[in-house]
Amino acid sequence: MAPELVELLSGNDVVAIAPALLGARLAVASPEGTVAVRLTEVEAYAGEIDPGSHAFRGRTARNSSMFEAAGRVYVYFTYGMHHCVNVVCGAEGVSRAVLLRAGEVVEGVDVARGRRPAARKDRDLARGPARLTSALGLTREDDGELLGGAGSRICLELAGPADAVPAELVRSGPRVGVAGPGGDGEAFPWRFWIDGDPTVSPYRAAARRK
C-alpha cells in the first residue's frame, strides 16, 4: 500500500476514514481479468462501541479479520447468498472497518457484466454492497487478504488530487438496513456517499420485526 493509504487506514477514527475512501479505486485481479471500481458509497463500523457492528459483542470465527491490523479485507457471507467486503482499519484488536457499499466500475466492465448478468445498466453493476462484491469476484475465501503486497490480488488506491471528491459533494446519513440503536441516524450517521452519483444505492431502513 502507498504510504498515505497506510497512514489513513492505521487511524482508529473510522468515521473520519470512511469518507476519505470515497473516490478511491479498488481493483481485484483474477484469471478472467481485473475489475476495478471507484468507490461512491461506504459505511463506518466501530467495533465494540458500535451496536451496528459485527464486532460489537467481541471476536468470533466469522468476524476475526476485523480484529487484525489495518490493511486487510473482511469479507462475510450474509442471507445465505451474498458476500460483502469491508476494509479493516486501526490497530490490531480494535475491530474497525469500512463497508464498501457501492462503486462505479472503471475497469473490466465486460468481466463485471458476466458476473452480474441481472444488472440492466452498467451503473447497477456495483450498486449495493453485495453487487459490488460480486462484480469484483470476491468471496469468503478472500477474507483476511492484504490490500496489496506480494501474492495479493486486491489493490486499493486513494484518489489523487485531480480525482478527489469535493467536500461539498460528500453526504452522510443513517446506515442501510441496520436495526436497533445502531440504525439511529442521529447517533450513527455513518453512511457516506457522493451526492448525485448514479451508482449510489438507495437508502432502506431495517425491516421492523412483527
Short account of what is shown:
InterPro entries: Formyl_transferase-like_C_sf, MPG, MPG_sf. This protein is of the alpha+beta class.
Describe what you observe in this structure.
- The chain has 210 residues and is of the alpha+beta class.
- The chain has one domain: Methylpurine-DNA glycosylase (MPG) (3-methyladenine DNA Glycosylase, Chain A, Roll).
- Helices cover 14% and strands 25% of the residues.
- It has four helices and eight strands; from the N terminus they run H-H-E-E-E-E-E-H-H-E-E-E.
- The chain has helices at 3-10, 14-20, 109-115, 129-136, and strands spanning 25-28, 35-45, 73-78, 82-89, 96-107, 154-157, 170-173, 191-194.
- Strands 1, 2, 3, 4, 5, 6, 7 and 8 form an eight-stranded antiparallel β-sheet that branches.
- The chain is globular, with a radius of gyration of 16 Å.
- The termini are far apart.
- One of its GO terms (molecular function) is DNA binding.
